[in-house]
Write a structure and sequence with these properties.
Elements (H helix, E strand, L loop, with lengths): L6 E2 L5 H6 L5 E6 L4 H16 L5 E6 L4 H6 L7 E6 L2 E7 L4 H11 L1
Parallel strand pairs: 1-3, 2-3
Antiparallel strand pairs: 2-4, 4-5
Length: 109
């Protein structure tokens, strides 16, 4: 369901894609059954294309990557987190406009 530029982040590639990333990483914690997650999905995919080369944008399916959801204390989804150097710089939950997610990335650049 992710767009071409949107990464699928899993427990196995988290270290290389996020922790070792030279650029900020926005992660959308979501699940297939979550309707609000589906609502922000297109915005996340657009941001992935727009920030290509400047930041990474990815999605974590909490049903198949429970350890990552626990690591970031994801209580409800959608939950969007921006990390830089493997450290959380911002976090928000719920449906938000694309511009708000863009601001989160911009603040980390």
């Amino acid at each position: 369901m992710a767009g071409a530029a949107t990464l699928t982040i899993t427990e196995s590639n988290y270290q290389s894609e996020v922790v070792e990333s030279q650029v900020p990483v926005l992660i959308d914690f979501w699940a297939e059954w979550c309707q609000p997650c589906r609502m922000i999905g297109p915005s996340i995919d657009q941001l992935a294309a727009e920030y290509q080369g400047k930041a990474k944008v990815g999605k974590v399916d909490i049903d198949t990557n429970r350890q990552l959801a626990l690591k970031f204390n994801v209580q409800s989804i959608p939950c969007v987190i921006v990390l830089k150097g493997g450290q959380v710089v911002s976090k928000t939950q719920g449906v938000k406009p694309k511009a708000e997610f863009a601001k989160m990335i911009d603040a980390a650049l």
